[in-house]
Amino acid sequence: MSYKYTVIIPHYNNINGLNKLLSTIPSKNYVEVIIVDDNSHSKVTDYIDEFMVKHYENLTVLTNESGYKGAGAARNIGIKHAKGEFIIFADSDDYFVDNAFDTICSGLKKDCDICYFKPTSFCLVEKEKSDRHVRYAKLIDNYLQSECEDIRYKFYVPWSKVFRRKFLVENNVRFDEVLASNDVMFSLVSGSKANKISVLDEVFYCVTRGVGTLTVNRSKEVVFSRVEVALRESSYIINEKINTENHSVISVFNLAGDKIDPPLALSTLFAFSKGHLPFFPQSYKNYIKNPRLILNRILSKPVVDSSKSSKYKKYSFYCSLSILFLYECEMIIFS
To answer: 122: how many CB neighbours lie within 10 A of its CB?
Structure first.
């Protein structure tokens, strides 16, 4: 059976959120729903198999048996099994707004590879509107006002978009199967390869902000995963000659924060030495005139956990000295 839309949902131990999300998806014969469970507890999977499959039409439940844990691997499985002409990604703790699929149907342009919609957000803790959607809403506004192409490269998340499945398959666009930031390269590559995009000032998706999600997780493993992805993102932007603001040595160090250590610093400096990472952010042109300002900026960066302050500043100090040394050498060689 063929469908107009396939909604792909990665899931892990969140029955309440999943129930709410499914309740906002209309039971229509043109909407296929694929849940890819990332090895939840047995009670959770039993509930999904025994209750949800019976009460929701056109619902398929798959299990992530790829050997790679995480939403990226789950989404890739969903893409492989999708039958819809268009694919929509949703997270199990989010939901579609009222009349979402009417909005999609009326706004979607068939000749577009990607259609971007304006998202909204809600804080589950404070029970009020959140700001998690703001950066992406601004990308929508900037494109509609001046056709700013940054929306292709900086709309990092997969939700609040509609993808033509044939486009994803033919270009082999897939998610990274990593712990964090699995969607960054997917969004960058798909945005850069899309022949035609559509951008609408309409809302169909609400992203939520909760407790314990990856967006607020600052564990060492999560931070290192984000840094590794940032370095590959930077390399792709440079190699493909994409005209957008890139990461830099300074922004990567800021991303690492108090989790920075010598191996991470060395990998960042190595990327810089290979030309895969700019030294300064484009917006920090004043550092070009006086690179020693980096020391003041990094060493004055506040650290939430005071017990880690000394270690963080020590690594930052040595990393900053290394950067300044390389920069001065470069200036001497090419002056």
So the answer is: 18
Cβ(252)–Cβ(259) below 8 Å: no
Token digits of residue 316:
């930052």
From the CA atom positions of the chain, what is the Rg in Å? 22
| Mean pLDDT in consecutive groups of 10 residues from the start of the chain, 335 residues | 93 93 92 94 81 80 87 97 97 97 93 97 91 96 96 98 98 96 97 98 95 67 92 94 89 86 88 85 61 58 49 53 55 46
* One domain, residues 202 and 282: no
User: Last residue of a domain, which of 198, 216, 234?
Assistant: 216
> What is the pTM assigned to this prediction?
0.83
End position of a domain, from candidates 163, 198, 216: 216
Give the closest residue to 93 by CA, choosing from 183, 5, 215.
215
Q: From CA 298, how far away is CA 322, in angstroms rounded?
A: 13
State the residue range of the domain holding 210.
3-216
167/287 same-domain check: no
Side-chain half-sphere of 294: how many Cα atoms within 13 Å? 28
